[in-house]
């Protein structure tokens, strides 16, 4: 018998049941082998008197004894598995677990026997507390560990953080990769972007579902996952870990796992915010609720602010708060009200501020709300409102009959203070960027070109972050026709994108994504120079090279073949120069 055979009989001897080794020994030391085999069969066969006469009948039909025993065995195993599951549900709690523990004690020595293993695993799965000694044996054996149910693994994990970390780590990597793939996706659209999927849809994602299943109702494992997410967020500053923190809690909420939801102090806040994210707007009723949670943080419980700030740092939360802020500012213009007079707006800023301060708070372990700079409310937001007013004024002017003095030009300068705010104040920068996304979505080319220069230098380079560039490239598709104008392209590419392309690989990728989508609209001379400028260097990553090759292929396909050019000589005649409206 080879090692495979040995595994088949693993543990039988301990139970006093003869196995293949015993038969081998019997046959080696006997004088009449056939008699010895017969005796072995009688001693170890199915001990039913009525069966003895039936077996020769099977022999006549040429059915091997192995086949018969195998089918009896399979049938019995199924019955036993059903019985174990039934025991786990019947009678008093102590009694049923006592029965299962006795059964585990008797059967555990056969755990490595493939045919019996499912039964042993089933018994362990139904035991809320598998004896420590058995768990250690399972943990020490790779194959057994792999084979046991998640219910058993949870019991192992809760006392082995490193092992649990090894299981969770690849899932977290996969999650971040999935998010980045969406941000860099070649499909650029204003309708379907990073923030399009609803929270409920996102929670159905593979990673969230797997983690939810791994945690079950185990608070200790849930806490461990949160600890991993906090640590990784601190180490990498990657905000997608904050999204996962909220998604995981809400996934457990969907399953009504009260054991965990009731002990997570962020549960109700996250639930309320989740509803706002679904609507992409914070309405007055929910604003009151959210404010109640923030105001309700008691002395001595400030640490919960660390968790709340992480929930608010989730890009989906920031997106909702920022969009709501822009909407509020527009409403205030219509109401002739200043930002400082709007409690709803002040609450949005308070939550933005808490979310944006998450990393610093968790890093410093100083749990108090960040102080809001008065100038943000008294200077910066009124300035944004003045831009909204400029647009209204310009639009009205366009409609008025023009006097001798000619049409009034669109304001082209930006207040120096606006640029300074974007460079020095994180919240101002976030709101400023969302305002720029807003005007781009409205196809407001004038306002876009006016404010674009302020994006070259922003607080911690936020204007070159993947989320902003992902949204901006999507919104720019609405201004597609403007790309035919050299002036527009120069402002956008030379004045903004190319200032960071060489030092930031991600910007290089986003520009190539945009050109892959809009190359047919770009002024030909500009496209040619962009193609040269954007050529990857030796240091460029694979993603940039791949995108560049795709773009080159597309441009090659657009070039007319030499044959076509010679057939249409009329095009080669010098054309009279007609002044275009733009150059007048």
UniProtKB/TrEMBL annotation:
Residues 558-584 are annotated as: Disordered. GO terms for biological process: negative regulation of transcription elongation by RNA polymerase II. GO terms for molecular function: translation elongation factor activity. InterPro entries: COBRA1. Keywords: Elongation factor, Protein biosynthesis. GO terms for cellular component: NELF complex. It holds the Pfam family COBRA1. This is Negative elongation factor B.
């Amino acid at each position: 018998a080879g090692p495979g055979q040995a595994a088949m009989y693993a543990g039988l001897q301990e139970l006093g049941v003869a196995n293949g080794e015993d038969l081998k020994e019997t046959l080696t030391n006997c004088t009449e082998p056939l008699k010895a085999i017969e005796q072995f069969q009688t001693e170890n066969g199915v001990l039913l008197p009525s069966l003895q006469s039936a077996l020769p009948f099977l022999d006549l039909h040429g059915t091997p004894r192995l086949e018969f025993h195998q089918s009896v065995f399979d049938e019995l195993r199924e019955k036993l598995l059903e019985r174990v599951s039934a025991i786990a549900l019947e009678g008093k709690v102590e009694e049923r677990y006592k029965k299962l523990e006795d059964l585990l004690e008797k059967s555990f020595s056969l755990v490595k026997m493939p045919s019996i293993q499912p039964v042993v695993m089933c018994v362990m799965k139904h035991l809320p507390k598998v004896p420590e000694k058995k768990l250690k044996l399972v943990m020490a054996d790779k194959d057994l560990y792999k084979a046991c149910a998640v219910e058993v693994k949870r019991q192992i994990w809760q006392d082995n953080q490193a092992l649990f970390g090894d299981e969770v780590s690849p899932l977290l990597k996969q999650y971040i990769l999935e998010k980045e793939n969406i941000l860099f996706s070649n499909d650029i659209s204003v309708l379907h972007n990073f923030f399009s999927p609803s929270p409920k849809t996102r929670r159905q994602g593979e990673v969230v579902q797997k983690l939810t299943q791994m945690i079950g109702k185990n608070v200790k494992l849930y806490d461990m996952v949160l600890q991993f997410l906090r640590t990784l967020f601190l180490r990498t500053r990657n905000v997608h870990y904050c999204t996962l923190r909220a998604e995981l809690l809400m996934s457990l909420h969907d399953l009504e796992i009260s054991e965990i939801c009731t002990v997570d102090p962020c549960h109700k806040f996250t639930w309320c915010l989740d509803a706002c994210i679904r609507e992409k707007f914070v309405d007055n009723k929910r604003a009151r609720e959210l404010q109640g949670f923030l105001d309700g943080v008691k002395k001595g419980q400030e640490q919960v602010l660390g968790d709340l700030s992480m929930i608010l740092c989730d890009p989906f939360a920031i997106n909702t708060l920022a969009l709501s802020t822009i909407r509020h500012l527009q409403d205030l213009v219509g109401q002739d009200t200043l930002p400082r007079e709007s409690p709803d707006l002040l609450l949005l800023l308070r939550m933005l501020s808490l979310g944006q301060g998450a990393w610093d708070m968790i890093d410093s372990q100083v749990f108090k709300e960040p102080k809001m700079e008065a100038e943000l409310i008294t200077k910066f937001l009124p300035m944004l409102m003045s831009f909204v007013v400029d647009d209204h004024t310009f639009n009205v002017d366009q409609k008025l009959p023009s006097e001798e003095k000619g049409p009034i030009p669109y304001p082209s300068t930006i207040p120096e203070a606006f640029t300074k705010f974007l460079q020095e104040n994180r919240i101002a920068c976030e709101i400023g960027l969302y305002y720029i996304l807003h005007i781009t979505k409205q196809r407001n080319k004038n306002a876009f070109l006016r404010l674009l220069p302020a994006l070259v230098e922003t607080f911690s380079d936020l204007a070159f972050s993947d989320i902003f560039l992902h949204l901006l490239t999507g919104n720019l598709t609405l201004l597609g026709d403007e790309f035919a104008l050299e002036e527009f392209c120069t402002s956008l590419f030379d004045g903004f994108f190319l200032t960071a392309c060489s030092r930031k690989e991600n910007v290089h990728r986003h520009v190539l994504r945009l050109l892959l989508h809009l190359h047919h609209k770009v002024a030909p001379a500009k496209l040619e120079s962009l193609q040269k400028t954007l050529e990857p260097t030796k240091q460029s990553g694979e993603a940039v090279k791949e995108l560049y090759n795709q773009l080159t292929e597309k441009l090659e396909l657009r070039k007319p073949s030499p044959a076509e050019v010679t057939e249409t000589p009329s095009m080669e005649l010098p054309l009279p120069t007609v002044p275009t409206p733009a150059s007048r």
